[in-house]
Write a structure and sequence with these properties.
The complex is a heterodimer of chains A (143) and B (15). In chain A, 69% of the residues lie in helices and 0% in strands. With 143 residues, chain A is an all-alpha fold. The longest helix of chain A is centred in the middle third of the chain and has 17 residues. Chain A starts with 5 loop residues before the first helix and ends in a 6-residue tail after the last helix. The radius of gyration of chain B is 11 Å and the shape is rod-shaped. Chain B is largely without helices or strands. The N and C termini of chain B lie far apart (33 Å). The chains are: A mainly alpha (143), B little secondary structure (15). Chains A and B meet through helix 6 and helix 8 of A and loops of B.
Chain lengths: 143, 15
C-alpha cells in the first residue's frame, strides 16, 4: 500500500466533491492516526480546520470523521479532543462572537449533538462537560 | 523538543 499522510487522508474523506460519505476514506483516516506517534494532535488540528470550512458539506463530512474516530480510536485521541485547545475550535464555530453567525444551522447542531453525546459517553473527559456547560450557560445550547 | 506525551492545553474560550 502506498504511504499516505494524514493530511491526504482527511482531504479525501472530506472532499466537497464526494457524493456520499466516503466510509473507506473515513476509516483509513482513523486507522492512520492511531498508527502515528503524533497522530492524535495532528488529526485534531486537521479536523478543526475542516470543521470550520464555509462549505457545509465539507464541515459535515469532517464532523462525521470526528464522530467516527471518537467511536473507533482510543484514549490518545479522546484525550486530544478533550483538551480546550480542540474544544475551543468547536466553540468558535457555534459562538456568534466568532464564526457562529455565518455557520449553517446543520453544522452547529451537529457539533452540539456530538458534544452532548461525549458528555454522556466520556464522563471522565471533564473539559468536554465544562465546555458544554459553558455553552448552556451562555444560551448557545438551548433546551 | 518534541514531547510524545504533550499534556499542555489552553484556557476555555469565553463566548
Amino acid at each position: 500500500m502506498e504511504p499516505e499522510t494524514l493530511e491526504a487522508r482527511i482531504n479525501k474523506a472530506t472532499n466537497p466533491l464526494n457524493k456520499d460519505l466516503d466510509w473507506d476514506g473515513i476509516n483509513a483516516f482513523c486507522e492512520q492516526l492511531n498508527k502515528e506517534l503524533e497522530g492524535p494532535p495532528l488529526a485534531t488540528r486537521l479536523l478543526a480546520h475542516k470543521i470550520q470550512s464555509p462549505q457545509e458539506w465539507e464541515a459535515i463530512q469532517a464532523l462525521t470523521v470526528l464522530e467516527s474516530c471518537m467511536k473507533s480510536c482510543g484514549k490518545r485521541f479522546h484525550d486530544e479532543v478533550g483538551k480546550f485547545r480542540f474544544l475551543n475550535e468547536l466553540i468558535k464555530v457555534v459562538s456568534p462572537k466568532y464564526l457562529g453567525s455565518r455557520t449553517p444551522e446543520k453544522v452547529k447542531s451537529k457539533i452540539l449533538e456530538l458534544m452532548y453525546s461525549w458528555t454522556l459517553g466520556l464522563p471522565h473527559e471533564v473539559k468536554i462537560s465544562e465546555a458544554y456547560q459553558m455553552l448552556k450557560k451562555q444560551g448557545i445550547v438551548k433546551c | 523538543t518534541v514531547s510524545f506525551h504533550d499534556d499542555s492545553d489552553e484556557d476555555l474560550l469565553n463566548v
